[in-house]
Write a structure and sequence with these properties.
ten-stranded antiparallel β-sheet, single chain, elongated, 200 residues
């Protein structure tokens, strides 16, 4: 196995995604990062304004009314979203890999749903992780604020990564300002939302 093979596979299952960055002059404003209070951000989702709120260590995602009244007199940062490609972490490459990747895992006595950790000895695995981190917005620019869609991060507290079975749609993850990060998913069958409070 080579890292180039893994990268080519990752590119074949890459997804369209959006990255929210500071709005520049005359750019459309798609979200607002709130600098004070329980409401952490407001984002335009399906042509309606929704907010992520943290209160008493619980996170919620709910539609927001009277947005301009909410923002009036509030310190906030306007954000604009940009198209990017989202590449899967090595855990997803393991899980969704083709026959050659499955054979490579078997040669390393590894199962596809174990995810990647330090016990995986082939250095090609770490080479891919390094490439992926160079391309994942959490790692390459301190001025990245939010990721929308694409492949989600797999966190240390994930007992079962939420995109393995396709029942959940990854919507948003905040990546600005350090931990905690806030993550939002939507259940495809019911349309209901679930939120997570992420700490690495």
């Amino acid at each position: 196995m080579t890292v180039d093979y893994l990268i080519n596979f990752a590119e074949s299952i890459s997804q369209d995604s959006f990255l929210y960055k500071l709005s520049e002059e005359n750019q459309r404003q798609d979200a607002y990062w709130i600098l004070e209070g329980d409401l952490k951000l407001i984002v335009n989702y399906q042509n309606e304004w929704w907010g992520i709120t943290e209160k008493n260590c619980k996170v919620s995602f709910a539609q927001q009314d009277n947005v301009w009244d909410l923002l009036a007199g509030t310190q906030c940062i306007p954000l604009t979203k940009h198209n990017i490609k989202s590449y899967p972490s090595l855990d997803y490459v393991f899980y969704f890999g083709d026959l050659q990747i499955s054979t490579w895992l078997a040669e390393n006595n590894w199962q596809k749903d174990w995810g990647f950790n330090d016990n995986f000895k082939d250095p090609v695995g770490q080479d891919y992780v390094n490439w992926w981190m160079d391309n994942y917005p959490l790692y390459f620019d301190e001025d990245n604020f939010i990721i929308e869609g694409g492949w989600s991060m797999i966190w240390p507290d994930d007992n079962e990564p939420l995109q393995y079975d396709g029942s959940n749609e990854f919507l948003f993850c905040t990546i600005f300002g350090g931990e905690p990060y806030y993550e939002v998913y939507r259940y495809r069958d019911t349309g209901k939302f679930t939120t997570y409070f992420r700490i690495t």
